[in-house]
Amino acid sequence: MIKKGSRGHQAALCQRMLNEKGYITKVDADFGPSTEAVVKRFQKDNGLTDDGIVGQKTWEPLLKLPNFCNDEEKFIIHNGKKNLIRWNRVVLWDEPGGLVAKPGRFYNNSGKKERKPTLFVNHWDVCLSAESCADVLNKRKVSVHFCLDADGTIYQLLDTQHGAWHAGFNTINRNSIGVEINNAYYLKYQKNQVQRGLGERPIQNEGAVHGRTLKPFTWFYPAQIEALKALWVATSNAHGIPLDFPRNDDGTPCTAVHDGCKKLEFSGFCNHYNFTNRKIDCAGLDMEVLLKEARPL
C-alpha cells in the first residue's frame, strides 16, 4: 500500500505507471500531495474510491500493460553508450526508483578494453519482487546486469561493460550478461502476487531438466515473456550475440554446455541450468520458440 508521504522504489513505480498512462510527467520517487491528487483522478477515472491510497484495487488497473509503441525511446547501457530497446518499461540504475549493484559485487571494467560478451544467461530469482532480488544479491555480494519484475519492468543494475557474478564460474561471468526474472517459484506465494495487483501467476506443469520432471511451480506472466524477448533482441543488437540456444547434434535443446573449466565454445542465449546440474532455472522456458518469435523484432 502506498499513500501520501511514501518515498522510494514503490512510490517511483506508482509514478512511472501513471506517467505511462499520461497522468504525470515527473518521476521523483516522492509520493507527495501532487502525486496523491493524480492518484485520486486516476481512481475516479477507473471507477474506484478516490482516496489517494494505492492498494490492491488501484494497482490492478495501474499495472495493466498499455500498447507498447515506444513513443518514448528507452535504452540499455553498455560502456556508457545507449542501445535502443523496444520496450517502454525500462529503468536504469541512476533513475528514480532504480536498482543498483553495489561496488565490489562485480568485475569493474571501467577504463579497460571494451568487453565483448558472447553469452546471455537467464535466471529466475525465487524472490517476491525485483527489488527484493536486488537486496538479496547485494547481501550475498553477487550481482546481475538486469532484473525483470513481475509487471514487465526491466531494471538495469549494472553497465554491461562490467562482468557480473551471476553464473558460478569465472569464465562464464566474464563472458556473459545475466538477467534475474522475478518468479517466487513456490505455489504458496500466489497470494503475494495477488496482493501486488498482478493476479495469480500461470502455473508451469511441464518443467523438466537434468532428466527429471519438476513438480508444478509458478511461471512467468505474459508481460515478462514479452519483455524478455525485447531484452534479448536489444542485447543481440548491441553485442552481436547470436539469437541461438544450446543444441544437441540433432538440433534438440541441450541441457549442458559447460563443465566449469574448459574453454567456452557456445555463443548465444541460454539458462542457468545449462552450466550446472545443481541449478534448474529456467526449466520450462522454450528457447527455440521464444527466440524464433524474437527474431522479427
Characterise the protein shown here.
By secondary structure, this protein is an alpha/beta fold. It has 2 domains: 9-62, no CATH class; 90-294, Peptidoglycan recognition protein-like (Lysozyme-like). The chain has 8 helices and 14 strands. It has helices at residues 9-20, 33-45, 56-62, 130-139, 170-174, 190-195, 222-239, 287-294; strands at 74-78, 81-85, 90-92, 106-107, 119-124, 146-148, 154-156, 163-164, 176-181, 203-204, 208-209, 212-213, 217-218, 268-271. The strands form 5 sheets. Strands 3-7-6-9-5-14 form a 6-stranded mixed β-sheet, sandwiched between helices. A hairpin with a 2-residue loop joins strand 11 (208-209) and strand 12. Helix 7 (222-239) crosses helix 8. The chain is globular, with a radius of gyration of 19 Å. The two termini are 36 Å apart. The model has no long low-confidence stretch (mean pLDDT 93).
